[in-house]
Amino acid sequence: xPRSSAPQDFADRPPWTRPGFIxxxxxxxxxxxxxxxxxxxxxxxxxPDVTGAPPPATPAxxxxxxPQDLPTAPPTAAPAGVRWELVxxxxxxxxxxxxxxxxxxxxxxxxxxxxxxxxIAAAQLSTRAGFSAGRESWEPTISQQFEPGAxxxxxxxxxxxxxxAPAQPGELSQIAGFSxxxxxxxxxxxxxxxxxxxxxxxxxxxxxLTLRWxxxxxxxxxxxxxxxxxxNRQATDLVGVVEWGAR
Length: 247
What we know:
With 247 residues, the chain is of the alpha+beta class. Helix content is 26%, strand content 24%. It has helices at 19-46, 115-128, 135-145, 150-161; strands at residues 82-87, 90-95, 102-104, 107-109, 174-183, 187-196, 203-214, 217-220, 232-235, 242-243.
């Protein structure tokens, strides 16, 4: 009988060449590989760094300071370390810690992102935006340091139409105190009290000024309709107001 047609005697072959052994070995190999894959997948799920993705960033305010780290408690007494300088005939505050850090061309900018910084900005910007400060002051202050909008444009238009009428000595109100109506790192609403010139009993008026933190500095919100009278109230005393001003 030709060799190729002889029956194969698997009993005489080495065990690793027998069909039964090969099938069993193949099954064992598949099981082992599956176990390794499951083990790797399990480890990967427990390790948060397995993907290499960075942790989510913590939100931060401008300048890299997290919002929760910014001071929010308004002062209950007159800020220390303040000196007073004249803008025209009105004394305005200057602080080495709260600003302004840049005074140029009738403007004053660079205020601290703090309640004190907002207070100094309110006093400086409202005074420099006043008609008596002169056009070289109110025009760039309102154009550059007030929030854009129809009210700002109306305020500018009214001042441009007013012409020139310098104030006489002693006829302008001076800063006399403040009260915080609300404060967050984004928005400050401050009542700035002024002592009006008067013979006899003192008279006061309070401007409710709103400032917003924009582009790394405090910006003033123009009064409704562009009229300061819309945010002004009369007072006969300083009850509820922290006294503050040039002495």
